[in-house]
Description:
Elements: H1 2-17, H2 23-35, E1 42-46, H3 52-57, E2 63-68, H4 71-83, E3 89-93, E4 106-112, H5 121-131, E5 132-143, H6 152-161, H7 173-182, E6 185-191, E7 198-205
Helix pairs in contact: 1-4
The structure holds S-adenosylmethionine.
S-adenosylmethionine is lined by residues 4, 8, 46-49, 53, 67-70, 73, 95-97, 112-114, 117-118.
Amino acid sequence: MDQNIKFWDRIAKRYSMRPVADEDAYQKKLQTSQQYFQPEMEVLEFGCGTGTTAIIHSSFVKHIQAIDISSKMLEIAQSKVDAANIKNITLQQSSIDDFKVANETYDVVLGLSILHLLADKEQVLAKVHKMLKPGGVFVTNTVCIGDKLKFFKYIAPIGKFLGLLPLVSIFTTEELKDSLTGAGFEIDYQWRKGKDISVFIVAKKNE
Length: 207
Ligand SMILES: C[S@@+](CC[C@H](N)C(=O)[O-])C[C@H]1O[C@@H](n2cnc3c(N)ncnc32)[C@H](O)[C@@H]1O
C-alpha cells in the first residue's frame, strides 16, 4: 500500500491540473448521479482524489465523507473545498480497506476511477454493500482494461515494479458486473460513451 500512496502523492499536483478527458461524458455522469441524490442524503466517496466531483455534488446532498489514501490529493481537495467555502464535505486520509463505518450508514457511495486500482475489489464491494442503507446505490465509473488491452496484464507488474504505475487490476465489464451482483447489488443503470474503456454503473442494494 505504501508504494501506492507514494505513487498518488507524487502525481497529485499533475493530476489536479489535468483537464477532464471528455467534458460531455463527465457532465452526463454527474447529472445521472444527481438523479439519485436527495437533500437529506449521506454520501461516501472513496478515492476522491482532488475532490472535484465531491465539490460539484455537495449542494445536492446533506453531507459527503470523502476519503483517499493520498495526503497530497487531499491537501489539494481541502484547498478547493475551503476556497469554495463548502461546509458539508469532510475529507479524511484512509484507504477504503481500512475505513471503519457502521453498517447501513450511507444512502450513496461513489467509487470513481478506483475499482481497477484495488487489490481486492470483491472485498471492497462487499464492504460497500454493507455500509449502504437498504435501497442505497453505489455509483461507479470503472476502467475495464480487460475489455480491450488484454496484453496490459504483462505490462502492469513491470510498471508497478518501476514505480511508473500504481497497482492495476484487469477485468472486463462483464466480470465487473458479476462482481457487483455477487456482492448483492442489482445493476440499475449502465452507460459508456462509444467504445470508451470506462463503464459508468449505478448498482442498487435491495430495499
Ligand atoms: C485515478 S484517481 C481517481 C480520483 C477521482 N475519483 C477521479 O475520478 O478523478 C484514483 C484515486 O484513488 C486513490 N486511491 C487509490 N487506492 C485507494 C484505496 N485503496 N483507498 C482509497 N483511495 C485510493 C488515489 O490516491 C487517487 O486519488
